[in-house]
């Protein structure tokens, strides 16, 4: 790469004597030759990539107007650049920018420098950049551009979660000249870097609603919770700092004293015995209104007991048989009773004297109850004496 140093001869004379100036010029010449430093002076010319002619004056480059610029002027400019000759391209080049330096150049072709041709003074013109002149020199061939080496990758834009690195190269190896083609491709290249996930520290969510108070009076407690999910810790991130729950007192007013009240009695249990007196019981709980805050327990007992099935168990079999006969429950007992009655009737009928002309008159008199039988028997026993004994008496035989 060349370093361009711009100087003016008059400026050196201001600070240096002639001897010092000569020494400094020699030193600069040696340095320029060693380091390839290129210095510009007033009147130097150059061609752009589009063959536009530019001339240097007073620390800046500027364009030349195409008014009166012919092939003689082009030949002078090309010879100044080291070529054997050239032709004028007129304004068929890309428009320039900056200062228009010269106008109305009238060269003969014998001048050694373009600045030596007659023209208007520096920067005096009636042109625009659409009139910038171009020159094509003999043996001037297009130079295609070439890429320089890639620069080092830049620092990654992020330390995690994927950043971007860039590197660049320039089309200056060589630079395109004289309408040579530019380098193909991009001057910038990118790639991703540091793709590992970043640690995500946890943060608390908002508090949930308070729970209901644990007591309606006498100091209760309520709580609320939150979660460490806003966001949730990830990739070895730190868990939320603090507690996930809070507890506070509530309903701190004193509670009233409540006396217990019994619930309704439950149903009686079955009797513990079928006869000779058993027991059955019922119970209740002190839960209709439980005692609270020092209130008294329900007044009374929670169990009630009473006797049941108090009949004697003796002779119960006889009574049960009689009940079965009367009610018709025991069919066997009924059959036995019927058989007994028939046998009894038959035995008594043989000993009885027939009345009213038939031996069966007695049968119709059997439809009497046990009570009638007992009544008649007791009456007969009361009226007869010891000597009055009839072996055929039905009452004597059938008792």
From TrEMBL:
SMART domains: SR, TSP1. Disulfide bonds join 107-117. Gene3D superfamilies: SRCR-like domain (3.10.250.10), Thrombospondin type-1 (TSP1) repeat (2.20.100.10). The chain crosses the membrane at residues 21-40, 322-345. It comes from the Eukaryota. Pfam families: SRCR, TSP_1. It is found in: Secreted. The keyword Electron transport does not apply. GO terms for cellular component: membrane. Keywords: Disulfide bond, Membrane, Repeat, Secreted, Signal, Transmembrane, Transmembrane helix. Residues 38-138 form the SRCR domain. PANTHER family: PROPERDIN. This is SRCR domain-containing protein.
